[in-house]
């Protein structure tokens, strides 16, 4: 680290400070994500406090598995505000902390129950796991479904999941398995109007009933349309069978007609 009109770090010093490899820093430079303040005549790279701050932001975003291109777009946007970004990071970290604390609490209670030191209801045993499912759904799909269906609908759905008994949860798991198997068979048959395809649509409606406190044909069809348009949903259905999301949408149009 050199002193002059500003504090300078060589690439090896910054690598050691941040706990990332020099190769990573060179790659960040190559893609325009983190440029050194200057390069010496000898080719050495030097970074100052502004690059340190930017690297910290990059590492925050990477900790949430964000793609480098997305991080670059965020940091380079005209309205990027480091304070707002840090506040957002803090909220996410607090949510992660709460999630871990719930799991720790659940494990501790389970241990005490197995030792005979306390009793644990079935609801308590699975509450933390259901909360984690709600959190994961929010993380993956929350923004999209809240825009489409509104906060109240999503909040009611989350509450319905959290209030499920273990018996209801097991029933839902079995239903989900039957739905996926029927969908796979229907796609392999290749006819959206077939008996198998229409049975899959009926199972999908039944499956929705475990989550939604409301139902309308329009909302159901719009949901299936979203499966075909949003890559996250489409990826899920592609794992069941290639072209599954598009097939389900076509079959559902017939089912709901």
Secondary structure topology:
Elements: E1 9-10, H1 11-18, H2 22-30, E2 38-39, E3 45-47, H3 49-63, H4 68-76, H5 82-114, H6 122-149, H7 151-162, H8 166-189, H9 195-209, H10 217-229, H11 231-240, H12 244-256
* Distance between the ends: 71 Å
Q: What overall form do the CA principal axes indicate?
A: extended
| Helix vs. strand class | mainly alpha
Average of pLDDT: 85
Q: What's the CATH class of the largest domain, please? A: Mainly Alpha
How do the helices and strands follow one another from N- to C-terminus? EHHEEHHHHHHHHHH
How many β-strands, per DSSP?
3
Under the CATH scheme, the architecture of the largest domain is: Orthogonal Bundle
CATH topology of the largest domain: Globin-like
Which labels suit this protein?
257 residues, Multidrug-efflux Transporter Regulator, Chain: A, Domain 2, Globin-like, 3 domains, 3-stranded antiparallel sheet, 3 strands, 74% helix, disordered N terminus
Task: Explain what the structure shows.
- This protein is an all-alpha fold.
- It has 3 domains: 9-76, Multidrug-efflux Transporter Regulator, Chain: A, Domain 2 (Orthogonal Bundle); 91-161, no CATH class; 165-256, Globin-like (Orthogonal Bundle).
- 74% of the residues lie in helices and 3% in strands.
- The protein has 12 helices and 3 strands, in the order E-H-H-E-E-H-H-H-H-H-H-H-H-H-H.
- Strands 1-3-2 form a 3-stranded antiparallel sheet.
- A hairpin with a 5-residue loop joins strand 2 and strand 3 (45-47).
- Helix 3 (49-63) crosses helix 4 and helix 8 (166-189) packs antiparallel against helix 9.
- The radius of gyration is 25 Å and the shape is extended.
- Residues 1-5 have low confidence and may be disordered.
């Amino acid at each position: 680290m050199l002193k002059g009109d500003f504090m300078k770090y060589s690439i090896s010093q910054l690598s050691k400070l941040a706990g990332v490899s020099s190769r990573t820093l060179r790659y960040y430079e190559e893609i325009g994500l983190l440029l050194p303040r200057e390069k010496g005549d000898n080719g050495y790279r030097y970074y100052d406090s502004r690059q340190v701050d930017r690297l910290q932001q990059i590492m925050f975003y990477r900790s949430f598995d964000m793609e480098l291109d997305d991080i670059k777009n965020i940091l380079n946007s005209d309205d990027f505000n480091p304070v707002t970004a840090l506040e957002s990071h803090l909220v996410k970290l607090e949510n992660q902390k709460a999630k871990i604390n719930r799991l720790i609490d659940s494990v501790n209670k389970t241990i005490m129950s197995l030792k005979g030191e306390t009793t644990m209801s079935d609801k308590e045993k699975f509450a933390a796991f259901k909360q984690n499912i709600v959190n994961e759904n929010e993380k993956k799909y929350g923004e999209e479904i809240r825009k489409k269906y509104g906060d109240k609908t999503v909040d009611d759905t989350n509450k319905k999941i959290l209030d499920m008994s273990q018996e209801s949860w097991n029933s839902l798991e079995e239903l989900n398995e039957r739905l996926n198997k029927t969908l796979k068979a229907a796609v392999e048959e290749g006819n959206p109007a077939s008996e198998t395809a229409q049975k899959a649509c009926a199972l999908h409606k039944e499956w929705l009933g475990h989550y939604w406190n409301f139902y309308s044909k329009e909302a159901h069809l719009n949901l299936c349309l979203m499966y075909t348009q949003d890559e996250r949903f489409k990826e899920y259905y592609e794992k069941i069978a290639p072209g599954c999301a598009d097939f389900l949408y076509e079959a559902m149009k017939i089912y709901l007609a």
